[in-house]
Amino acid sequence: MAKKHDDKVLAQNKKASHDYFIEDTMEAGIVLQGTEIKSIRNGRVQLKDAFIRIRNNEAWISNMHISPYEQGNRFNHDPLRVRKLLLHKKQIAELIGKTKRDGFTVIPLKMYVKNGYAKVLIGLGKGKKDYDKRSDMKKKEAKREIERAFKARNQ
To answer: Would you call 83 helix, strand, or coil by DSSP?
Structure first.
């Protein structure tokens, strides 16, 4: 019997790496309802404004948009509902400790399907200041210029 290994990234939060220094990452499962997994497999998920809260020693992801499934009719779900993340107690305790003590924020970075299950890669991030963002943009621009020069030189 063949194993399912389809770790294709279905959604990515590009804004997160622009706004935060990502210190640590961990993988979390997600509790879904009805036709949500079909929409996720079709790539109809958006993490742009999503964030993670920890309440009553449980992790919850808010503002993650999963579009309703086209053939789902009455079994469809609310696209912006709050969904529970599946983490171990030790992982949640670690997240609570870092967010309270060190000033970190928990943000979703990527969503993918692994062995048939939807997974969310969450990261502990520390907010960037405006000057950090500007210096990152300068580094990217310099790198692009160097690559263009090499490409033009080699042609």
So the answer is: strand
- Residue 115 tokens read as 């062995």
**Structure-derived torsion over alpha carbons of residues 60, 64, 65, 68, reported in degrees to the nearest 10:** -30
Give Dmax over CA atoms of the chain in angstroms: 60
Q: Running DSSP on this structure, what letter comes out for residue 149? A: H
More confident: 100 or 70: 100
Residue 93: what residue type?
A
Q: Quote the CA–CA distance of 128 and 7 in Å, as a whole number.
A: 29
Residues 51 and 123: their CA atoms lie apart, in Å, by 11
**With bands split at pLDDT 50, 70 and 90, how would you rate the model's confidence at 59?**
very high
